[in-house]
Write a structure and sequence with these properties.
Shape: globular
CATH class of the largest domain: Alpha Beta
Strand content: 25-35%
CATH topology of the largest domain: Rossmann fold
CATH architecture of the largest domain: 3-Layer(aba) Sandwich
Radius of gyration: 17 Å
Order of helices and strands: EEEEHEHEEEHEHEE
Helix content: 10-25%
CATH superfamily of the largest domain: Vaccinia Virus protein VP39
Number of domains: 2
Largest sheet: 11 strands, mixed
Length: about 220
């Protein structure tokens, strides 16, 4: 895990009462590190005292075992995501949702100014002790409440998200930040909005700038 990621990470377990966003930041306790990446240690919440272990460079927000990605993701998808996110010129953090973690490594090579953060259930996990250059991984089902400060993310790529995930994406995106939504490989029946693509068009604050059969790009206004 990139040590400076703690500047935007917040505790998934607690919200400030009455607030619409996570308020409590997390503190890193480092047992071992490799340059600017934490290999072993934990993240602690000063408010609720929750602890989230870091093992082999991966942050564990839950005890769930990593799940396989829904389908194989080719390098071609990484190239597509990089182009749609404007990764080559982007700076800051790019987030990949559940099922897209397989493109984290190739995307990081196409986004020299960014740290790539893969969230949700992981299909690709580095071997113990290994750290990935410019890739941080957060294990656990956290997409329903993305553990980032509001307005802290440059770009997000999601796969078939529901409305709650899209609203979280809107919250954490910077103004003018890009959202890329990949729909199902097969188109849903006519009028079916469950793919996540149609849902984006109904959210105030997200302006759709490009749309094809299986992918959509929106910008936070």
């Amino acid at each position: 895990m990139f040590i400076e990621l703690t500047e935007i990470l917040v505790c998934p377990a607690c919200r400030m009462e009455g607030a619409d966003e996570y308020a409590q930041g997390l503190v890193a306790v480092v047992r071992s590190r490799s340059e600017r990446r934490v290999v072993e240690g934990w993240l602690g919440c000063p408010q609720c005292e929750a602890r989230y272990p870091i093992r082999g460079g991966v942050v564990h927000f839950s005890d769930e075992e990593p799940e396989a990605a829904p389908s194989a993701i080719e390098t071609e998808r990484a190239l597509q995501a990089a182009a749609l996110l404007g990764a080559h010129e982007a700076a800051g953090y790019l987030v990949l949702g559940c099922g897209l973690d397989a493109i984290a490594e190739p995307l990081s090579r196409l986004a020299p100014g960014c740290e790539v953060v893969a969230v949700g259930c992981l299909g690709v996990v580095p071997a113990p002790g290994e750290t990935s250059r410019r890739v941080s991984r957060l294990q656990g089902t956290v997409e329903e409440g993305l553990p980032f400060r509001s307005g802290s993310i440059s770009g997000i790529a999601l796969r078939e998200p529901d409305r709650s995930v899209l609203m979280e994406a809107l919250r954490v995106l910077r103004p003018a930040g890009r959202l890329v939504v990949f729909g199902p490989e097969r188109l849903p029946p006519a009028g079916d909005s469950r793919s996540g693509l149609a849902a984006v068009e109904g959210i105030e604050g997200l302006e759709v700038v490009a749309k094809e059969e299986h992918v959509l790009v929106a910008v936070r206004t």
